[in-house]
Amino acid sequence: MKTWQCVVCGFIYDEAKGMPEDGIRAGTRWEDIPADWSCPDCGVAKADFEMIETSGAAA
Amino acid sequence: MEPVVDAASIVVVGSGLAGYSLARELRRLDAAVPLTILSRDEGSFYSKPMLSNALASAKTAAQIASASPQQMAIQLNARIVVGVEVDGIDTAGRILHAGGEAIRYSKLVLALGADPITVPLEGDAAHEVMQINDLAAYAHFRDAINGKKTVALLGAGLIGCEFANDLIAAGYEVHVIDPAAWPLGRLLPEDAARELQSALAAGGVRWHLGTTASAVSRVASRLRVDLGDGSALVTDVVLSAIGLRPRTQLAQRSGLKTNRGIVTDRCLQTSATDVYALGDCAEVDGRTLPYVLPIMQAARALAKTLAGTPTPVVYPAMPVVVKTPLMPVVICPPSTLSGSWRVQREAGGIEARFEDETGNLLGYALVGSAVSRKQALTKLVPPVLA
Question: Which of B200, B218, B240 is the last residue of a domain?
Fold first, then answer.
């Protein structure tokens, strides 16, 4: 499981946790998140450049 | 006469989130139009919201910068000029004067940002009070607190609270001073704020509320802060996080209309044709909103306008996330003052709804466990600018 960070606002998506309140269940891999999904904190689109893979444990 | 260096190009002044986000959105619509970005700092792309929660994870300034200006120039197919101050704009001649160059523009975007507000302080160390408004200042602050024990924060607003939480998590003793009776005084009702206040206090934050710092003086290797209530505290570093004031000086001396910010219409055009303003420096339809979501909305609309389709900006309800892991807070500020807070306490949190007299939701504040309802409640809040 990996974590992904929005480089615009710092929001972290943790594959292990998912975002159940946003309809994304725990364990959902980044590549399985719909292309029209956007960062819940700043609205940046998934399809853009804005997420980077972070190393190490989930924050 | 200065040399005119460019054929007319779209020129963006500012390489913060606003300037670079606009450039990215524009490039999605038009890959070819000549684009120049002027930066007064070194032009790296970085996440500004990260500056107030990067200490606990021991991030250096270099780690926060995710792309160099050279990488951005390639990515954006743009000419990026760093370390340059713009002296003036000739709006009639469509020429920008910057560092001895005259730069011709077809369309000009001012994404200048905002300056930290400072309060006048007495004392021989008043000039040592620090602020963090960009990556370089973050690096400077990080050096200043290295090996030190205590930080005093002026301001218990959004940035002040985030820094307080981050510094506590990084192992520092933290004092927070603010004239308001509770933290986030302008955004939160009392009960919700008290929840945040006690969580941070339990984490170690020492609050000095209802008072202000009056003087900062050097006492051997440390600093003494005198407070208006007659008390004093000793610290190593003082960090001011009182708020932001839009940068309007360039616009003013170039004859553009300014008020609190650089005044723009819904299409983000200033009082001069083909001159636009975006982000923290802009006052869009009467509003200055120094947050990330409004910048993203505005950047998208302005990119369309610059690409040839005039597009007014639309602001949906835009929640603001306060990054205080000890007690997370999400606030969707109501765009009107006529209404009242209805506060509901739950296990581990608070849901506060700001409603009109017929019970319509106009805004909200969620604290602790309640933050999981952000998405659901945001859908019920009317747009800020429909």
Answer: B240
